[in-house]
Design brief:
Shape of chain B: elongated
Oligomer: heterodimer
Order of helices and strands of chain B: HHEEHEEHHHE
Strand content of chain A: under 5%
Distance between the termini of chain B: 81 Å
Largest sheet of chain B: 5 strands, mixed
Helix content of chain A: 55-70%
Shape of chain A: elongated
Largest sheet of chain A: 2 strands, antiparallel
Strand order of the largest sheet of chain A: 1-2
Number of strands of chain B: 5
Radius of gyration of chain A: 26 Å
Distance between the termini of chain A: 29 Å
Radius of gyration of chain B: 23 Å
Largest interface: A-B, 20 and 19 residues
Order of helices and strands of chain A: HHHEHHEHHH
């Protein structure tokens, strides 16, 4: 990476790799290289020319639009597919928990959700095939905030559930200073399943992350090959 | 996209197979095993010592412990309540049934077995009275010690002691009748 490329990367540090950012980066880099080449042609030393070109562009604030737009039908199809995939994985994880009578309702609810998602996915996919491209705009900063908020709320939920399970199963042992007694592998399984089932809900914040990722992936004008 | 769809189909198939295996094979087998185990716990000849050793306690005044112990022993299918007399270190187990309505061989085996378990696991219990609607069986620690020729607490050290000394002899009806006569004072209620 030459000094001008490094400078451009520094200018765009913290910006998401959207199409607009990628294009602007390429444009600024080419302008800076042209400027440095002009100065060198005028007799300036290369290092000095680079410094002069860099001094010309110290910030990209105001050059980027806050709103980006994405292809709605591609985004919806991919999002439904991802949700379906996560839902099936979560379901498979909950099935062994049925052996210990833990998360029984969840292991019945998840395949139903997967079935509904599967049907919607097939409908949306079929409809999207013949549609002309429709776009919608999104605010990247707001989407990042939503994603982070989803992770924070999920983290708090998981922490609360872990504490609840600990208090429920070991509260009196901790309070009276007695060692924890597990009478066999079945009791261990029950305890492990009680700790593990809230982890399954991680698919919710994961879907928020996927949503942001897919909006960037299907940004209007960009091309992707699956 | 197609690879993801293939993965989805594979996961759906795996989920359906796993769910069917758990619901139709594993859980019914576990339930059958649990039923067999529960049935074994109701007979003094097949009861498992391991299921009651956790109720070992120094004091008969620990009501929840002694109650849990009695509900883990044979005769637990008969509705019962309990009264404790800590001053005389005596526990009354009140069975709400007539002895005439119960299988007499099973009843007598269970009384010997339950009294032995109670004295072996509750260190300061001196007397236990099994009160039925029509009859009362009173057992004392001193008579139990004389019957087995050793401290009751030593019987629960291992199933290798418990089974040949306490459990197996109960298969012999003459031993059971002798045990009832030697261990219990029987009175009408």
């Amino acid at each position: 990476m030459n000094p001008l490329q490094k400078h451009v990367e520094k200018l765009f540090a913290g910006y998401p790799p959207t199409r607009q950012v990628r294009e602007l980066k390429a444009e600024i880099l080419s302008n800076l290289e042209a400027k440095a080449a002009d100065l060198t042609a005028e007799g300036m030393e290369y290092a000095q020319a680079v410094e002069a070109a860099k001094a010309n562009m110290t910030s990209v604030e105001g050059l980027l639009e806050e709103q980006a737009s994405y292809d709605i039908s591609k985004y919806r199809t991919a999002m439904l597919q991802t949700a379906l995939l996560y839902c099936l994985i979560a379901w498979i994880i909950t099935i062994p928990m049925r052996l210990f009578r833990v998360a029984e309702n969840l292991s019945l609810l998840l395949p139903l959700i997967a079935l509904v998602l599967g049907l919607i996915y097939l409908i949306v996919r079929g409809a999207a095939a013949g549609d002309a491209m429709k776009t919608s705009s999104f605010n990247h900063a707001a989407a990042v905030l939503s994603r982070n908020l989803a992770w924070i709320i999920w983290g708090l939920f998981f922490l609360t559930m872990t504490m609840y399970t600990t208090v429920l199963h070991m509260g009196s042992n901790i309070w009276f200073g007695r060692p924890l007694h597990l009478s066999g592998p079945y009791q261990f399984g029950v305890l492990a399943a009680n700790y593990a089932w809230p982890l399954v809900t991680i698919i919710i914040p994961l879907l928020f992350s996927a949503s942001l990722r897919l909006k960037i992936k299907y940004e209007a004008g960009s091309r992707h090959v699956d | 996209m197609w690879t993801k769809n293939k993965t989805i189909l594979l996961l759906a198939a795996a989920g359906i197979l796993l769910f069917a295996a758990v619901q139709n094979v594993v859980l019914p087998q576990w339930d059958r095993n649990a039923e067999i185990y529960a049935a074994e716990q109701q007979s003094p000849l097949t009861h498992h010592l391991e299921s009651i050793t956790k109720y070992h306690n120094k004091y008969m005044g620990n009501a929840s412990n002694i109650s849990n112990l009695m509900h883990s022993l044979p005769l637990n299918e008969v509705r019962s309540t309990m009264q404790l007399y800590p001053d005389s270190l005596t526990a009354d187990i009140l069975y709400h049934a007539d002895t005439a309505d119960l299988d007499s061989a099973k009843l007598e085996r269970s009384l010997i077995y339950n009294a032995t378990a109670a004295f072996a696991l509750i260190d300061n219990l001196k007397q236990i009275r099994f009160k039925f609607d029509d009859r009362v069986y009173i057992a004392e620690r001193s008579r139990l010690e004389a019957w087995y020729g050793k401290k009751p607490s030593s019987l629960t050290d291992s199933p290798k002691i418990w089974i040949p000394v306490v459990q197996d002899p109960l298969a012999d009806l003459s031993y059971v009748q002798k045990g009832i006569a030697s261990l219990f004072t029987v009175t009408d209620a």
